[in-house]
Design a protein that fits this description.
A hairpin with a 3-residue loop joins β3 and β4. By secondary structure, the chain is an alpha/beta fold. The two termini are 45 Å apart. The mean pLDDT is 91. α11 packs antiparallel against α12. Strands 1, 2, 3, 4, 5 and 11 form a six-stranded mixed beta sheet that branches. The chain has twelve helices and 15 strands. It is found in: Cytoplasm. Pathway: Amino-acid biosynthesis; L-phenylalanine biosynthesis; phenylpyruvate from prephenate: step 1/1; Metabolic intermediate biosynthesis; prephenate biosynthesis; prephenate from chorismate: step 1/1. Pfam families: ACT, CM_2, PDT.
Length: 367
């Protein structure tokens, strides 16, 4: 490159860089202006006795959807959502960092889901078991819980479903996380890998890949993928199946990326708290119900929803814990419980169901 060409390049770049510096200064000013507005919201809530409700999931969902709808590009909507979640997370933390309980240790997909929903300014509280995640919020040691409820290939997470039956907590949000599984190991030679650690669901999600690539390796189920990464980091001749967060946290090389059998492998998480979420304009309502043990009982039970034109997006049964061969049904419907048609349908359902528990109405996940 000639000196003249180099000078022309630097001159052109200097003008663009000056624009970037100016825009960064304006962004800094606007971000702090937004933070001051958020502080004013907190002050107004405190004056009216609502200081404990600093996080409003329906308001956050409305903001994110509006930003996605008006985004002119070139940044994709997913990046806009990520950026503004972090802005809102930092603004909330000026009042009080939210304590978020999730299934640990650090490095799990549950941590990734918690961070995706609440941002990096939240106070992460990893727990040893899903039961402990529920208890942290029930006891007031955490503001919210993030728990896995279903996977697109492996189905429902049974322990979460069972605990929803008895908890006083309410569903106030959901997170949908694309799951990429990686083979992590300090070993570079596949023939030296004799054990593969992972959570049972992750082992199942990579079953066919393991059959092809590591057919002789022992598959060992552990409590979480992060725990699997810890073990693989310490034991020669072992590997772990885990996500990006575990690879980074435990400094394990990714031998092979994206080894999940299903390319659209996705896990849905619930956000649980002590308060309801208001209507956001695009919501779900989750409930648990049971029907008398007789022919046609479930059909009769669901009829009020059908007659009201309410769309059901999930129906799953689980054994009732109080009687042999009795079942409870977990149902997700579209819409908020305060909408007139849904409220009327739920009232009719309550009159006919042997048992009915409304778990909560909450915004549909914003990607």
């Amino acid at each position: 490159m000639s000196d003249q060409t180099q000078n022309d390049l630097q001159k052109a770049l200097s003008g663009v860089r000056a624009d970037i510096d100016r825009i960064d200064g304006e962004l800094l000013k606007l971000l702090n202006e937004r933070a001051r507005c958020a502080q004013k919201v907190g002050e107004i809530k405190a004056e009216h006795g609502e200081a404990g409700h600093i996080y409003r999931p329906e308001r956050e969902a409305q903001v994110l959807r509006r930003l996605q709808d008006t985004n002119p590009g070139p940044l994709p909507g997913e990046n806009i959502t990520f950026f503004f979640r972090e802005v809102m997370s930092a603004c909330l933390a000026l009042e009080e960092p939210l304590g978020i309980a999730f299934l640990g240790p650090l490095g799990t997909f549950s941590e990734s889901a918690a961070t995706k929903h609440f941002g990096h300014a939240a106070r992460l509280l990893p727990q040893g078991a899903i039961d402990d995640v529920f208890r942290e919020v029930e006891s007031g040691h955490a503001h919210y819980a993030v728990v896995p409820v279903e996977n697109s290939t492996e189905g429902a997470v049974g322990r979460t479903m069972d605990l929803l039956l008895s908890t006083p907590l309410k569903i106030c949000g959901e997170v949908v996380l694309r799951i990429h599984q990686n083979l992590l190991s300090n070993e570079t030679d596949f023939s030296k890998i004799t054990k593969v650690y992972s959570h049972a669901q992750s082992l199942a999600q990579c079953h066919e890949w393991l059959n092809r690539m590591l057919p002789k390796a022992q598959r060992i189920s552990v409590g979480s993928n992060a725990q699997a990464a810890q073990k693989a980091a310490d034991e020669p001749g072992t590997a772990a199946i885990a996500g990006e967060a575990a690879a980074a946290r435990y400094s394990l090389p990714k031998l092979v990326e994206n080894i999940e059998d299903e390319p659209n492998n996705t896990t849905r998480f619930l956000v649980l708290g002590k308060h309801d979420a208001g209507a956001s304009g695009r919501d779900k309502t989750s409930l648990i119900m049971s029907a008398p043990n007789r022919t046609g009982a479930l059909h009769e039970l669901l009829q009020p929803l059908s007659l009201a034109g309410v769309s059901m997006c999930r129906l799953e049964s689980r054994p009732a814990r109080n009687a042999l061969w009795e079942y409870v049904f977990y149902v997700d419907i579209e819409g908020h419980r305060d909408e007139p048609a849904i409220k009327a349908a739920l009232d009719k359902l309550a009159a006919s169901a042997a048992y009915l528990k409304i778990l909560g109405s909450y915004p549909v996940a914003v990607y």
